[in-house]
Structure formats: C-alpha cells, structure tokens
Specification:
- The protein is mostly helical.
- It folds into two domains: about 5-85, Winged helix-like DNA-binding domain superfamily/Winged helix DNA-binding domain (Arc Repressor Mutant, subunit A); about 90-225, GntR ligand-binding domain-like (Four Helix Bundle (Hemerythrin (Met), subunit A)).
- About 65% of the residues lie in helices and about 5% in strands.
- It has ten helices and two strands.
- It has helices spanning about 20-40, 50-55, 60-70, 90-115, 120-135, 145-160, 165-170, 175-185, 190-205, 210-225; strands at about 75-80, 85.
- The protein has a two-stranded antiparallel ribbon.
- A hairpin with a 3-residue loop joins strand 1 and strand 2.
- The two termini are about 35 Å apart.
- This is DNA-binding GntR family transcriptional regulator.
- One of its GO terms (molecular function) is DNA binding.
- InterPro entries: GntR_C (IPR011711), TF_FadR/GntR_C (IPR008920), Tscrpt_reg_HTH_GntR (IPR000524), WH-like_DNA-bd_sf (IPR036388), WH_DNA-bd_sf (IPR036390).
- Keywords: DNA-binding, Transcription, Transcription regulation.
Amino acid sequence: MTARPTVRDAATPRTRSTATGPTAARALTAALRAQVLSGALAPGAPLREEALAAEHGVSRHTVRTALAALAAERLVTAQEYRGVRVARLDDDEVRSLQHLRAALECEAVHLVAARHRAPWPDHVLAPARAAVAELAGTDPADWAAVQGAHAAVHLALVAAAGSPRLTDAYASLGAEVALLLLHARPRYDVAGLVAEHTAYLADVQVRGAVAVREHLTHLADVLHPPA
C-alpha cells in the first residue's frame, strides 16, 4: 500500500513539523489535497482535527486552516454534528459542476469563434493540442499526471479566448474537476481520454457551444446515467 504524503515527508524528522504558520498550512493543504485526489482518502471519509494534527505534526489551528482551504476548493464538506468529510459528488453536484464549466467554456468558444472561422488557426489550437499530446504520454498509473493533462486541455481551450478573468474563473474549478475525473477513473483509460478530447477539439470548431455541452454532459452521464 502506498504511504500517504504528510507534512513531515518534506521536513527534517522531528516530533513536530519544522514548518510553521502559513507555510505549514500550505504544506498540509497540499498533502491532504493529494490524498483526496489520489483516492487515498475516500469520499465521505472523516477528517478529524486532533488526528490530523498528530499524524502530520502540526497544530490544530494549522489543520483548521488547511481544511478551510480544501472546503473553498469543494474537496471537503463541513456539516454540523458530522464534522469535516471528504466531498462526495452526487448526481446534482456533478451536473451542477458541469453546467458551470459549460457556461464558462461555451463563452470562451463563442469569443474564439467570433474572431476565427473554422478551422481555427494553428496558433489558437496549439496549446490545447499540446495538452492532448501530453495526456497521450502520461503513465496510466500516475493518475495525478492524467488529471493535470486533462485539465490543461480544457484550460487551454478557455485561455484561447484571451480573457484572463474567464481563464481564472475556469482555473478555480481545477481541484473539483480533478475530483470528478477521479470518480470517472474506473470508466476511463488514457487512450479513451485522448481519443475523446482529440475529437472534441475538432468538433468544437464546427459546432461550438453545442459540442461543449455534449462533451461535458457525456462525462456527467458516464458517472450518473439518466434514469
């Protein structure tokens, strides 16, 4: 079984971490994020302050700061009487996330299409195509790399619109989209993702927003098939 990354892994072994304040909180946030997005922490798993503080050698204040950061990324949820738990993506949450992605991605595609007729110029599509090539070269066992390359395809497509605010808004969904892809992992492989996104980049130039919505709806349907 692969050992979970902890704050101590990057520090001199001591009873407590040598990192303090914001540095310790950032390190713990990164460690817990990696555990959630790798599946080491399963959906619904409880995250208890006292246990995490002891495991990672940090204060409970640092744990609270890290959990608040993960909650802002929607990777964990905090509920009264139930505490903090790793987020679950039920049908409503999956479709809500995909609707938000579609709104941003459709607007980006609309802006690109307003400037360029199909087929779009090579320089417009080059970053997204490079991301697909990177996806094709990832090790299927390194799901974090797969997640990163997948995210880069969509972010490059949005960035092609030339709107920093639109790109920033889309990038802010990155952790939640990675969690979504983790849930889809049993139904996808790297070759399938590459084929799907290669076809998507061709389709979106011709059909625009319709292609965006179909692509994103497909993933939601894979996870939660319509009744």
